[in-house]
Amino acid sequence: MLRCVLLDDELLALQYLKLLCEQISGVEVVKVYDNPEKFILEKDELDFDVCVSDIEMPVINGLQIANLLSNKHLIFTTAYRDYAVESYNLEVIDYITKPVQKDRLEKAFRKIEKLTKESKPVSEYITLNSEKGKSIINTNDIFYITVSDVDSRDKIIHFKDESTLLIKNNSFEKLKETLPSRKFTRINKREIIAMNCVNYYSHDEIVSKILIDGKPKTFTIGINFRNEFLMLL
């Protein structure tokens, strides 16, 4: 969830901007300000990730606000095109000319989400409930994960050294949330594969780098999972 503060000295523009933000999923409006001086006085007490601000305002303009928010994401909304160069020099996320369109504003928020995910450190280690108890697993050692034939609620992790570990009562959805998102993908209803084990692929088949009994292990790509796989290549 992106927590945002809205800043515009024009009350109608501020109300319209708030309405748009409330229609965008993953965005929460923390507070709105029609007075930039009041915002500056209160900004250190607020918990927010993004400031959506007008530029032309009395006493303090949006460019000055940007210089005070070095650790926050900033989106400018303005009726003037004259500040575009200065805005990008300040590394502003987006410069949106009024009237603000919902799709353009949403695009700016999605860009922030992407930047946030990419900058977030990813741990190589995860902890899962296994047949042996709590198991700490190095995700770099994982080859692929399958559904257990005995109980579909359980999953089997197959490691690159050909050893296995039974994971108790864990869905693929929960595993996908736990695993590093850029390193693993679900390829069909029964399997998740480590992307660094992919050697080459065709329309419906993956040939891995890992040999089983001297031959490369192959996987079937389900039609409903193909796009997710291709996005990570």
Folded structure, characterized:
This protein is of the alpha/beta class and about 230 residues long. It folds into 2 domains: about 1-120, Response regulator (Rossmann fold, 3-Layer(aba) Sandwich); about 125-230, Beta Barrel (OB fold (Dihydrolipoamide Acetyltransferase, E2P)). Helix content is about 25%, strand content about 35%. The protein is built from 7 helices and 15 strands. It has a 5-stranded parallel β-sheet. The longest helix has 18 residues, at about 100-120. The chain is elongated, with a radius of gyration of 24 Å. About 25% of the residues are buried.
The CATH architecture of the largest domain = 3-Layer(aba) Sandwich
SS strand fraction: 25-35%
Report the mean per-residue pLDDT as an integer.
Answer: 92
The CATH H-level homologous superfamily of the largest domain:
Response regulator
Global Rg:
24 Å
- Biggest sheet strand order reads 2-1-3-4-5
